C-alpha cells in the first residue's frame, strides 16, 4: 500500500476509533443519572472548589436549583466567580452575556441569575 | 365525839339567826318605766340601728371605692414605669443616633442605590489582560507581549445585548526582526437577541462555534500561555454574518443539547487569486481583496455546531461532545471551496481533573496545488493539587497541566509539541502561568524548546 495512503488510513483509523470510544462513553453517560448536591462552593474561599468532594451522591431530584446549576456550569471554562464580586444589577447584564456564550437554556440562566443576585449581598 | 357535838351546837345557833335575818331583810325596789319612755327608748334604739346600718353601708361603699382607688393607683404606677422605660429607650436611641451621625459625618456619604434603568447598570466591561515572557532556545529571553482585551457589554433590555471585544497588543517582532508592533484588533462585535428560552439570534462579527476554543478557551480562559497550534493555523476565529443558537434541556437532570447554525462571509484571498498561499482565514469582512465593493465571494458560507452536555454522578462531573463544520468559497471568483470540520470533547471528573481536546481537519481547493488537506489535534489535561488533600501552604492553589498538540499544514510541514506546565491561582481570576514546550517540527524556524511565563488576569 502506498505510504501516503497507509498514513491516511492510519489517521482515519485513529479518528474512527476515537469517535467510537467517545460515542460509547457518551452512551453510557447518557443513561447515567447525575446525583445532585445542593451545596455550591464557599463564596469567600480562594480555589475552595478544588477540595475533593467525597460526599456520597444525593438522590436525583426533579429540578435543579440555581445553586446546583451554578455549580455545574459556572466553572466549566473558568474558575468560579463569586456572587459577591458584582451587584445584583450587574449580574443581570453579565448573565445575559454568559447565556449566549455558554449556550444555556433561558430557564437555567434565570435560575443561576437568581442565585447570584440573592447572594451578591448588594 | 363529844367535842364535835359541842362545835355543831355552837354553829347551829348563829345559822338559824342568819337565816331569819335574810328572810326578813327588804329586797331592791322595782323601778317602774312608763310607756312613753319605753317608746322613746325604742325609737332611739331604732334610730341608732338605722344609723349603724347606714354607716355600715357607707363604710362598705368607701371600702369598695378604696379598693378601686388602689387598683387605679397600681395601674397608674405601671404606666408610669412603662413611660419611664420608653423615655429611657428613646434617650438611648437618640444618643446612639447622635453617635452614628457623628461617625457618618466623618466618613464619605454613602452612595444611593442606582436605579435599574440607568445606563451604569446596563453597561459592563469584562475581559482579560496578559503579560508574557518567553525564553526560546537559541534566543535571548525577553518580555514579548502585553495584551489587554476588554469586552464591552451593553444590555438594551431583558433580551437584547450588544457585545464587542478588542485586543490591544504590544509585541516584539519576529526573531531577527527589529522594534515592536502595536496592534488594535476587533475580536468580535455582535448583537444578541434572545428570542425565547431555546433560541438566540446573533449578528455581526461573531466568534465562530467551530469547536469550543474560540468561544470558551481563549485569553485568560486558556491556562497555557499559547494557543493550540491547529486552532490558530487552521480555523477562522470569527466571521461576519448571522447565527441562530440555543440549548434544549434533555430532562431535568442538567443534560443539554446545544446547537448553533450560522451564515458568514467566510475566509478570503489575500490577493484575490486561488493560489494555496493566498488563503486568508481572517479575510471575511465583505470587501474583496482587490478593493471592489462587491460580495466577498459569489456566495456566503455557512456552518454549525451540535453538541450534547452530559452531567453525571454529581456536580462537576460532566462530559461534553460536539461536532462542528463550516463550508465557504474563499477566492474572489468563488471557484474554490474551503471546508472545515471539528470534533471536540471536554471531560470533568470532579473539581480537580479536567481533560479536553479537539480534532480539526480542513480541506480547500487551490489553483496551483490542487486540493490541500490539513489537520491537527490537541489534548490538554489539568489536575488541581487541592485534590490530594495535603495541607501544605500554596499547594491547594496549584494546578499541573500537560498538553500535546500536532499540526499538519498540508503543504509539507508537520509540527508536534509537548507542553508541561503549571498554574498558580493567586485568586480565582489572577493566574501565574508557566510552561515548558518541547517542539519537533519540520519547519526550521521553529525553536526546539521554549519556556513561557505569563501573568493572566480575568475581570
Chart the SSEs and their pairings.
The complex is a heterodimer of chains A (122) and B (459).
Chain A: H1 3-31, H2 66-73, H3 88-101, H4 106-118
Chain B: H1 2-24, H2 35-106, H3 119-122, E1 123-136, E2 142-155, E3 160-172, E4 180-196, E5 199-207, H4 213-216, H5 229-234, E6 238-249, E7 256-264, E8 268-269, E9 279-280, E10 301-311, E11 317-329, E12 337-349, E13 353-364, E14 372-384, E15 398-408, E16 414-425, E17 430-441, E18 449-458
Antiparallel strand pairs in B: 1-2, 1-18, 2-3, 3-4, 4-5, 5-6, 6-7, 7-10, 8-9, 10-11, 11-12, 12-13, 13-14, 14-15, 15-16, 16-17, 17-18
Molecular structure report:
The complex is a heterodimer of chains A (122) and B (459). Chain A contains four helices and no strands. Chain A has helices at 3-31, 66-73, 88-101, 106-118. With 459 residues, chain B is α+β, with helices and mostly antiparallel strands. Chain B contains five helices and 18 strands. Chain B has a 16-stranded antiparallel barrel. In chain B, strands 8-9 form a two-stranded antiparallel sheet. In chain B, strand 6 (238-249) and strand 7 form a beta hairpin. Residues 25-30 of chain B have low confidence and may be disordered.
